[in-house]
């Protein structure tokens, strides 16, 4: 794995909000995450986008080939494969622009193995945080009928086909209930994203405003909600 993350000096743990954004292909995760990041001074990290960028720059490596296979067909990268990308993203956000209050991990976790492994928090030396679990998990819900035209309209490469959408949507429907169950009683917020862009942003704002997570999970302290 050719991603280097330099060790930080030993620092006191700090407050830094981590937010997960779950959703099927075509759910509109990117749009809602971009809005949330802008309004609440958060970093936005799209896992899918960074994986595609890595593949383009490292086409002949074993990891790039494995990522491309998962993107094109089915299955999930292990946490071991994806954790260096996450660690670097969180570190860059913490050390980047002043007053950034946290980071949204858009498209993570995609499976139960990734979710459970993240909670073990392997990054305490590089990333000393007081809270090492997500303060909010957004479950961005959309029907297949609404997701499909969105996905095909925004196709990111020549492999983004109707067949690929069907595979990935079915995979999400199988795995997402297991991931959501891990967070549902603690930090999960369901967002109905079947409307227009403006309607979906209003729904996100309303649900965050209504959520008890404002106080119970430290969101307010981090300035997120």
TrEMBL record:
The keyword Transferase applies. GO terms for biological process: nucleobase-containing compound metabolic process. InterPro entries: Adenylat/UMP-CMP_kin, Adenylat_kinase_CS, P-loop_NTPase. Keywords: Kinase, Nucleotide-binding, Transferase. Gene3D superfamilies: P-loop containing nucleotide triphosphate hydrolases. GO terms for molecular function: ATP binding; nucleobase-containing compound kinase activity. The keyword Nucleotide-binding applies. Pfam families: ADK (PF00406). Belongs to the adenylate kinase family. This is Adenylate kinase 1 ATP binding protein.
């Amino acid at each position: 794995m050719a991603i280097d993350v330099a060790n930080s000096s030993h620092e006191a743990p700090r407050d830094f909000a981590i937010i997960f954004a779950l959703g099927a292909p075509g759910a509109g995760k990117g749009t809602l995450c971009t809005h949330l990041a802008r309004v609440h001074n958060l970093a936005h990290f799209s896992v899918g986008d960074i994986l595609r960028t890595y593949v383009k720059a490292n086409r002949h490596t074993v990891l790039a080939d494995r990522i491309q296979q998962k993107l094109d067909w089915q299955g999930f990268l292990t946490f071991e494969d994806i954790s260096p990308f996450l660690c670097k993203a969180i570190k860059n956000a913490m050390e980047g622009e002043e007053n950034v209050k946290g980071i949204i991990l858009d498209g993570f976790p995609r499976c139960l193995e990734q979710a459970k492994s993240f909670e073990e928090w392997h990054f305490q030396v590089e990333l000393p945080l007081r809270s090492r679990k997500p303060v909010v998990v957004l479950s961005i819900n959309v029907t297949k009928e609404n997701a499909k035209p969105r996905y095909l309209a925004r196709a990111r490469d020549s492999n983004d086909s109707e067949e690929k959408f069907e595979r990935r949507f079915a995979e999400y429907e199988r795995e997402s209930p297991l991931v959501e169950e891990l967070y549902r009683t603690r930090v999960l917020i369901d967002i109905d994203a079947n409307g227009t862009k403006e309607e979906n942003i209003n729904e996100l704002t309303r649900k965050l405003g209504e959520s008890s997570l404002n106080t119970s999970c430290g969101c307010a302290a981090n300035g997120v909600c």
